[in-house]
């Protein structure tokens, strides 16, 4: 993938500038840099980033409010949380609101840059330990057997055998690259299958797709 268009949102100027510098040196384009959530929501549609690197704790509004605002203002955007906190509820709230991934600020530079690349490609990316937390929560919700999920299941659009096969591997937390290697497909073909499946199911990202798959027991 060529350089990713990134917006950085963090209320600490030195940290924000450092992240922007690291991204630029890695060949990405930093299209905007903000210190407050409301400011980020105002500029995201004009800046048109592929990825927003977002701190969970901002001085004006909550991280969940920022995620909701960003996705409303610029629906194609993917959001990578970069936070000092790995507190369980904060992680789950961010993911449920639509964050694609969640990385702790203790991550190394190479891990961060790889997370930005994978987020732009649509892969859910989590600091080790947090992926299990998120999948565990989705399994708990699925086991709750709520009636809305059952109704959705009964009315689910028909997927092709290949789309279902890809969906099973998504539910296991595999990246596009890993799925492509497993099935002998190109990275682009896997992306196309995932995008087609998202469209059929009227879902927005791979996190929602993973929950859908787990609700149907496709992660076994």
List keywords for this structure.
220 residues; alpha/beta; Rossmann fold; Arc Repressor Mutant, subunit A; globular; DNA binding; DNA-binding; DNA-binding response regulator; NreC/VraR/RcsB-like_REC; Sig_transdc_resp-reg_C-effctor
Secondary-structure map with pairings?
Blueprint: E1 5-9, H1 13-25, E2 29-34, H2 37-47, E3 51-54, H3 63-73, E4 78-83, H4 88-97, E5 101-104, H5 109-120, H6 130-143, H7 147-154, H8 161-171, H9 176-183, H10 187-201, H11 206-215
Parallel strand pairs: 1-2, 1-3, 3-4, 4-5
Keywords: DNA-binding, Phosphoprotein
Domain Response regulatory: 5-120
Modified residues (4-aspartylphosphate): 55
Task: Walk me through the structure.
The structure is a single chain. The protein is an alpha/beta fold and 220 residues long. It is built from eleven helices and five strands. Strand 3 (51-54), helix 3 and strand 4 form a beta-alpha-beta unit. Helix 6 (130-143) crosses helix 11 and helix 9 crosses helix 10 (187-201).
State the helix count.
Answer: 11
Query: Per CATH, which architecture of the largest domain?
Result: 3-Layer(aba) Sandwich
Based on helices, strands and strand pairing, what is the structural class? alpha/beta
CATH class category name of the largest domain: Alpha Beta
Number of strands: 5
- The radius of gyration is 17 Å
